[in-house]
Amino acid sequence: MIPAPPASFLIRCPKLGHQIHFGYCEREQGKLPCSRALNCWYGIFNVVGYFKERLDQRQWEEAFSPPTKSKLETLIELIEKAKKRGKSDS
């Protein structure tokens, strides 16, 4: 099995903006890895192989498949819902 980098090895997390160890990335989504883990760690060790050994197909897709909606689409939906909620409260 492919070993994880040692806990003493830190990289800068683009999501959080500070140094983190791989263990955080491995469980950032609860039981699933951070969706950015493949991009952040690919130059450090065989992160694809590491996760392929440990995740089943459903977990892999849930963690690393692109979201069905973009952030902009999600934001627009949330704004529309808030507007509707505001009108119904008046």
Structural summary, described in words:
- The chain is mostly helical.
- It has a domain at 10-65.
- Helix content is 50%, strand content 7%.
- It contains 5 helices and 2 strands, in the order ββααααα.
- The chain has helices spanning 22-26, 37-41, 47-54, 57-64, 71-89, and strands at residues 10-12, 19-21.
- The protein has a two-stranded antiparallel sheet with strand order 1-2.
- The longest helix has 19 residues, at 71-89.
- It is elongated, with a radius of gyration of 18 Å.
- The model has no long low-confidence stretch (mean pLDDT 92).
Radius of gyration: 18 Å
Beta-strand percentage range: 5-15%
Give helix % range: 40-55%
Q: Determine the number of helices (DSSP H or I, runs of at least 4 residues).
A: 5
Distance linking N and C termini: 60 Å
Question: Keyphrases for this structure?
Answer:
two-stranded antiparallel ribbon, 90 residues, single chain, 5 helices, mainly alpha
What is the compact description of this entry?
By secondary structure, this protein is mainly α. It has helices at residues 22-26, 37-41, 47-54, 57-64, 71-89, and strands spanning 10-12, 19-21.
Task: Compile the SSE list and pairings.
Layout: E1 10-12, E2 19-21, H1 22-26, H2 37-41, H3 47-54, H4 57-64, H5 71-89
Antiparallel strand pairs: 1-2
